[in-house]
Fold each of these.
Amino acid sequence: MSNPFHEPLTTENAALLLVDHQIGLFPGVRDMGIDELKHNVTALTRVALRLGIPVIATTTSADDLWGPLIPELQAVLPKDLEVIDRSTVNAWHDERVRGALESFGRDRIIVAGTSLEVCAALPAISATAAGHTTYVAVDASGTFSATKRETGLARLHQAGVIVSDYASLVVEMLADNAHPIAPYVYEDLDMPFATLVGQFVAARSR
């Protein structure tokens, strides 16, 4: 019997869903620094695009409630990518979002959203119920209190959604550090410790 927790996430079986990283929501984030959240979601998106992973980005009521995507995320998304603006609380309930994800033919969906317990958790739970193996990048998903973070994580665990950090998901898909694209992936990740390692290697090669 197959176990989704033991089957690898790859560049061939994954898609990325970004839910509501909007300028009107970010000021309320309390479970991590806003700059950290911006860094993590943009790094996740850059690497996903470099690895050829299909990306969907959504907003909720962008014109009259929460505003557009944060500029940092808009800057790394393809210019021709249509951001799906919706009214449904659960992104999975929007036919355009669900249809786009299904059209990719990929059975694993990585989700990140603001807030964690609604924007990320609800579509992740729904996608899992629909038969997908679903992951939530918790450090690319922010929320508005410690309680919301704790209850959101508990609900994800109860529903069988796999929770992880964004960098671990990316390196799992990279799979081989000898791949020619690996240096660019780590550059996109922009992890401080990885930068230091690169500086150390460069210093030793002089």
Note: The mean pLDDT is 93.
Amino acid sequence: MSRQRGVSSRSRSAGPITLTGRGGIVVMFGAGVVCGLLSRWLGVGLLAGAGFAIGCALAAFATRPADLLTLVVSPPLVFFAATVTVVFTTTLGNGSLLRGMTVGLLTALAATAPWLFFGTVLVVVICLARGLMTNVRELQDKLIGVRLFEKEENENPVRWDESPTTTQERRRTHHGDVD
């Protein structure tokens, strides 16, 4: 009986679903591919772009705050990958693959480019409201810290004036000797 109480109390206390940055990218990609395929098969061009934008919004709301920076930079590449996947899937078996991919990809990208921009802006706006600037500041602090403690390349240059001057000293320092 106590086991059931533990399970039920855990399920009641579970918060909202949070995704990692990769999970958010998968949501955007999945929405783009599914809606792109439905758009091609049903002949509704609006569905591909709107589905991608909805996937972007869902990913931006569900991704944990620590991974917002990863999510914000991803929509263009995810959009391109989803479009390539959709065009490749629908072009297979329909004549020349190279010609079908080229024409299909250029046509799909041209037709849905405004949705790419809308989805990207949507992700940025939602992530800004959820704390993106905190991530940017943390990254900036890490980069500054790395630069402060990074050794200079010329910190310990070879000093030619410290080389052995006498023949005796040269013989003692052989190339294979280790100090």
Note: The helical segments are 2-13, 21-42, 45-62, 68-72, 75-91, 97-130, 132-149, 167-172.
Amino acid sequence: MDVIELLPRLHLLRFPVGQAYLWHDGAESTLIDAGAIGAGRTIADALVALGRAPGDVRRIVLTHFHEDHAGGAGEFAALSGAEVLAHALDAPFVRGELTGPPPRFEDWELPIHAEVSRHLPRGASVRPRSVTPVSDGDVLDFGGGARVVHVPGHTEGSIALFLPGEGVLFTGDTVAASPVDGAVMPGVFNLDRPRLVNSLRRLAALDADVACFGHGDPVVGSASAALRKAADSHPATG
């Protein structure tokens, strides 16, 4: 795993598939997404390398239930004592009470998904003991007040997190950056692509300077302009 400082208070944790983020408020930290199965110990080691401890992480906020984002949540929560939060619609899948619906793949996505799946760890994930549900408009106690933005489409309960005072936006898989040229684009492997595109347009209306994606390089500087360009190239529906 690579650990990259994006801002003095923000680190990117890059896994073989996907990525997570650490936001720091003084001695307290927040983890946004938690990697795949087995990532909990790797995240704990990364914190130690940064001069912090796993117990400094007070909360793990999951942008959605997919295994490359939520698979490590239970393991890291057990190591750190952190609270796990997810949208109410995705929380039952994170807890393992229900099996989440699979994406509706477009034909061109199938070979990409097959390749990604080869790099995901196998086995059963450690489920969080509890998951605190969040909803659109909730304000979480980090980053000066992190606003929950419900962005359905990738999953029914997908969320983004916006820190208005910091100009930082965590999009989850609603938005991605192309591995080829870094262009900002709608996320792939969606439950409902038209709804996802509408959610992208909602995020593009926010005044974000930094945009942190679930896959692909973040945009550091003038992120809202990049999001608007991506939204303008994909007309809203519905």
Note: The chain has seven helices and 15 strands.
Amino acid sequence: MYFTALLARTDDGWEASDTEFDDVESLDELADLAREAAPDDTVLVCIEQEGVWFGIVRIDGEDDPRVFVSDAARAMRSAYGEILLTDELLGRQAADDGMPALDDLDDLTDDDVAGGRDTDDNDNDDGALDPDAVPRGPVGDAGLLADFGIDAAAVLTLSADDALSEIAETLGAADVLEAVR
């Protein structure tokens, strides 16, 4: 089960909305959606797959989005996670540079994911690191909330079960987040 919300920091405090991301196909589209909700404010896009992984995207005006994902390998198995896990975030070259894009993961069969092949394994058959492997664990900018009192070390220790609640509590936005949950 997923939970998605937008938290916008306004002059009056934090406001939350439970926006659906079903029509969003890229990080750019997600950032545009957040900017539409609060064009002049900081917006945090919160995505949580219950007990599995969470992601935070911070949008400050027209600046590039800052992204943190708690577990890239698990998030990659999710349509929402694929939106956040860009080649840039994963440290890959863009597909234009001759490297496969993340869309190539769509070619995997159910057998590949279900047990025929371990898609989390970072080694290929000859023992070398696979440049297309998705890393286990956190990726992105763990310091994206530092100016709100949540430093990178704290973000890295959050569990997927209660991360968004803990972040909202620290921000003083727990009530507005729970109202849309």
Note: The beta strands are 2-10, 13-17, 42-49, 53-60, 66-69, 139-140.
